[in-house]
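Catalogue entry: protein
Contents: sequence, fold tokens
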Amino acid sequence: MDRPDLELVLAVRQHGSLVMAARALRVAPSVVTKRLAALEARLGLRLFQRTTRRVSPTAEGDTLCERAVQLLRAFDEVEAELRERQAEPAGPIRLAATFGFGRLWLGPALAEFQARHAGIQVQLQLTEQLPDLAVEGFDGAIWLWNAPTERAAEWVSRRLAANQRVLVASPAYLERHGAPRSLQELQQHACLVVRENGGGPGQRFDHWRLQRASDAQVQHVPVSGPLSSNSGELVRDWCLAGHGLMLRSLWDIAPQIASGELVRVLPSYAMPDADIHWLAPYRPQTPRRIRLLVDFLVESFRKEPWKKRVSATKSAPPAPRQKR
């Protein structure tokens, strides 16, 4: 059985007439009659019931037609992929990402990717709310959490990099107040709370979920302080100015840790809940330009390049605490 046979049975089922099927296939009616009879004889099955008014598929004919639809679609996809490989990738890619990661790390990576593929146009929209990707026409999103539960069955997800949120403070703050020596002592410090969207339903911003790398148990630590904001950048500025301790993604504060403007406290603890993911609406055939982009991003971020900036830094030892 070959491709013309599959196209023949689908044409007969669609039109319900050998004459109309012949017209759609642009062959003589006698050719359709002979080819269908030869196919049925080869299979030893009756595929269509013929009457003077209608040609309708048998149960076996319906089964063959359903499989024919799948096989012909697979033929088309293979041909499209082979044609695409022969040509330079081209076309637009529309992406969404959060402001911080998008500006600091994704933007430079996309510029490098586009320089490699001149025929591709990258459109990046920075936002704090994850869009409905398919409805709003996005090819994908680079996001700091996995797909929402209600979208998990409709979207594909691929982790680009691990991400930890770490505890930091400025040297000035630590000099005045000392560094906490345990999780319990965090409650005695001014903790700067970020109230950003995207952390999931029921998220408690005033509870930090901290975990040691060698310990599977997550500890919930209630924190408080006089300053909080929905802007992570503003909270980072407060922390740099010495107003308190902060829990922030390592990719976001790597330059400040490397320069000594911020110092890690309780360095064995982190909040590993916001890995960086590629999210995209499910599609049967992903265009090559998008596959190339995802592979490029995986290679760019899998080694967590922000860690290189802090690998040579050390955490400050606890300083004597003074009253605030």
About this structure: Residues 142 and 278 are 5 Å apart (CA to CA). Residues 198-202, 316-324 have pLDDT under 50 and may be disordered. Residues 59-86 form the longest helix (28 residues).
